[in-house]
Write a structure and sequence with these properties.
Elements (H helix, E strand, L loop, with lengths): L2 H17 L26 E7 L2 E6 L2 E5 L20 E3 L25 E2 L3 E5 L2 E9 L11 E9 L2 E5 L8 H8 L7 E5 L9 H11 L3 E5 L20 H4 L5 E3 L4 E4 L9 E4 L9
Parallel strand pairs: 3-4, 4-5, 9-10, 10-11, 11-14, 12-14
Antiparallel strand pairs: 1-2, 1-13, 2-3, 6-7, 7-8, 8-9
This protein binds zinc ion (ZN).
Zinc ion binds next to loops.
């Protein structure tokens, strides 16, 4: 990006944040090559770090959870970072691209070192509250483990993140359980790719409409620069064609984004994060 374009984009992001009141007490936004950091002495931040595929770290008040670590080079063409640190790991389901390959008998670097959770229920890591809701893996996949898929609802103060894993269309019961006790969903981590591998186009629209998140972070799409071949992984599409023509999209030049826990609700925006630099081919 040229200097002038970068400046225009920076101003655009700045205006967007002010207009949508994401960051009411902003003091400093750093260069977009680095994480968007908002420095404030008063409020703790919710920090989201994208690893790749469906894997994210979420940090709040000194604690970090890791969601859906994938296995090295199974189906996906790239490795999971070796030096991963977290206080707990939450996995949506036992597929290799979400559980580090445990179900297949692999030994990921974090095995027996970091507590690992996969079942529905309530969990507390510091001041991060995690609720697991029983969902169902999209058809026709996951029959080898009963199509189990746990949807994670992560609450920090009044800020809520939902990670859908590879869930299929949501049931009324799912919607009810998901929304119980929360004002709105600030960030939805949702599987989107141009081939609609997990949620079909109509199902995706339905989910976005009913959950009505402020920010949707797409996940579970092919990352061409990390893949060994242009036609792999099979059946998984890139994210770019899906975003084409949409105006409510922020493509960040960073894999980390920070939010204040008090975020005003606005109309849906897609936020596409870069994969972590530690992910290698
Ligand atoms: Zn998957």
């Amino acid at each position: 990006m040229h200097m002038r374009d970068r400046l225009i984009y920076s101003i655009g992001v700045l205006l967007l944040m002010i207009c949508t009141s994401w960051i009411p007490s902003m003091q400093e936004i750093q260069n977009l090559d680095k994480p968007i950091v908002v420095k404030t002495a008063l409020e703790p931040l919710v920090e989201i770090t994208y690893i790749a595929h469906a894997s994210f770290k979420v940090s709040y008040k000194g604690k970090t959870i890791l969601i859906d670590p994938y296995a090295d080079k199974i189906w996906l063409g790239y490795n999971f970072p070796k030096e991963i640190q977290a206080d707990a790991i939450f996995s949506t389901h036992p597929h290799y691209d979400h559980d580090g390959g445990l179900f297949l008998g692999k030994t990921p670097s974090w095995k027996d070192k970091i507590p690992f959770y996969t079942d529905p229920g309530s969990y507390q890591i510091g001041e991060i509250t995690i609720k697991g809701i029983q969902g169902k893996h999209c058809d026709p996949y996951g029959k080898e483990f009963g199509q189990k898929n746990t949807i994670w609802v992560i609450t920090m103060g009044s800020f809520t993140i939902v990670h859908l894993g590879d869930n299929g269309p949501l049931t009324n019961e799912n919607y009810k359980a998901l929304k119980e006790g929360i004002a709105n969903i600030d960030v939805l981590m949702v599987p989107i790719d141009s081939q609609y591998h997990i949620l079909k186009a109509k199902e995706l629209q339905e989910v976005l409409k009913n959950l009505n998140p402020t920010v949707a972070i797409p996940m579970h799409y092919r990352i061409p620069e990390l893949e060994g071949a242009s036609d792999k992984p099979k059946d998984l599409g890139d994210i770019t064609p899906y975003l084409k023509g949409k105006t409510n999209v922020d493509v960040l030049d960073s894999n980390t984004v920070s939010f204040l826990p008090e975020m005003a609700q606005s109309t849906l925006r897609y936020m596409v994060l870069k994969h972590a630099a530690e992910v290698t081919k």
